[in-house]
Here is the input.
Amino acid sequence: MEVAVKIRKLVKRFGNTVAVDSLDLDINEGEIFGLLGPNGSGKTTTLLIISTVYKPTSGEVYVYGHDVIREGDVVRKYVGIAFQEPKALWVDKPYELLLWHARVVGYSTSEAREVVKNVMEVLGLWEHRNKYFYQLSGGTRKKVEIAKVLIQKPKIAIFDEPTAQVDVISKHALWDAIRELRTQGSTVIIATNDMFEAERMCERIAIIYKGKLKALGTVEELKDSIPEGDIVELMLDGDENTYLRAEDLLKQYGKTVRSNDSLKIFLNKGEERAIEILDLLKSRGFKIRKIMVKEPSLDDVFFYMTGAKLKEG
Amino acid sequence: MGYLSAAWTVASRDISRFWKYRFWLAGQLAMNLADVFIFALVFNNIVNKAYIPDYLKFMTPGVAAIATFAAAFSIGREVGVEIRREVTQYLLSLPMSRSAFVFGRILGGALRGMIYQVSFLVLAALIVNVPTTTKALYIALTTVMLTFSMSSLAIAISTSTKDFNLQATLRALTYYILFFLSNVFYPKEVLAMRFPPQILQIVINTPVSLASDIYRWGFGYYENVDAVSKILLLLIWSLTLTTLASLAYLRNLTKQ
Here is the structure.
């Protein structure tokens, strides 16, 4: 399988802020690849470097073997990006904007009219075609942004948080359109902080946190990569202090992840240990509202791999 | 997409957008027309006839020269807004070379200037004189050079900072320096009474002054003007400004 995007020791600094920190990644041709991480984790910066908008501070990025710095003109022929924030001015109208985009990416005028109309109809944008951008809702603006890439059909299609601000019905239509794009031959890169979207859409996922790669693999591989395969989740009566005390007590069983209203312990033999934990907590005077034993979700993988706390978000 | 077709596609976007700022255009047009029909007509009876026999005929070609600024500078304003809203990121991601993109932007701004100026050139022909074919060619060349200079200068200024207020201030400052340090309002003889000789030499050789003189000669207000020397000097100005501004624009766009 050919590598579509190769990233080696990529670093991007903005002043003293390190946005991307020594990132290594291979994205294979034809896959739907997810960059998963919270806001400010370096996803967008990485995508902007792949699409030649930003230059790396150090490291190397190749698109089909072409260096993004030295061969930017060639790289841009392979890449199309739908930005996180729709890029238009208030005077723009969706139809004009997309028609112009279609001309830039190589369609003749008549082809452009046809492809733009088709894509606008698929995304439910046709009725909004002659409205000014400021008259559109956030979700509709986002769809216009996505439409650019669907029109372009690039070899590497990048979507930065494609369904943020989009309603649930449109979300499914967008996912279908992105999958269709892959079927037509594009390699798809999706940056998201939505675990459900990542799990549903992506064949492989890179978890990025504070600019660093924390984990990489398929959803199943990531879930299996947690050494303690079960999770005991507890809900206790009490305040943050209660959870702090419980966490101290239960660290002996495995890695713990605490939020305001639950405590998760990653461990083996979850069902047997849950009874021990229950007894221990009762003996120390804790009041237990709920105890569950479950398999890890992608959320759990994220928190386990990054060590992030929910309060950070 | 080839270099020229990419540049033209970029320029066509800027031209089509030009018509969307109708109210701004109307305001600009009103100001320039006021310069001709209020300012020039009123001053026609005040100025010394020995220096300026007909102030309306003197002023109209000058206004045609400064009219290119207003329209060409509008591209600078728009580029500034695009930087603030990060639309520039989209433009930089498009499948074309950076130089084609920069050339397209400058071409778009220059064409805006030319389109806007046409009505003032027609006005000058009506008020002063209809030019001969040769002189019309000089006028056209002057317009091309002036609009390219101003468009690239305005774009370069707008990309020099992300601070929108500073962008607007720098553009306005440049406009007023070029506007006031020129012979649009007064002929060389009058300027010589106010400025020291060294400053006078600068004032009469700025792009606006050179263009105003060529227009005045082209429309027949002046008889004895060394149009060839002036157009060559304007060419040097134009090439220098366009090259430097293009390089600055390219550098500012890609510095991140």
Notes: The CA atoms of residues 38 and 312 of chain A lie 9 Å apart. The interface with chain B takes residues 14, 48, 51-55, 72-73, 76-77, 79-81, 83, 85, 87-89, 91, 96, 100, 103-106 of chain A (CB under 8 Å).
